[in-house]
Amino acid sequence: MNKNNIKYKITLYPYRSLSKTGFFILMFVLGIISFIAGITFMLKGAWPVFGFFGLDVLLVYIFFKINFKSGKKKEIIILTENQLIIEFYNEKKISKTHYLDANWLKINLTKFKNEISKLKISSKNKSVIVGSFLRYKEKKNIVKSLKTALRKNHFNYEKINV
Asked: What CATH architecture applies to the domain 3-13+74-160?
């Protein structure tokens, strides 16, 4: 794929509300509070409680690390002269690539209950679900942006439920 052929490109990342600095501060404060509470219980004679406070901090740490790892996923949507290419990345490696004919696109954004939504891009007999980690408003903005790029480059497309 030649960079001159790229007509439109957008990268989708999962939303993360806590930065690495925020994570460090949270773990530090949680560790201090747990340590002080554990020492207090130990001085009162309930020494096994101290270990449970440490276990709580360890579990919070592990689950945040799992959350941060899932935040390294990304999806890239690329529109070329005749294809829509969708690349799925796990950390820094491409895990899947889909090639769709840009002349036969169908964009389907469906909103379900509780702000759950699904953005499906189809072409001929192939469908790809995009941005599963994004909120409905973000998916709606992607549809608008993609629609503008398709119109600008003279591609026909069909919107469904958008």
From this structure: Roll (2.30)
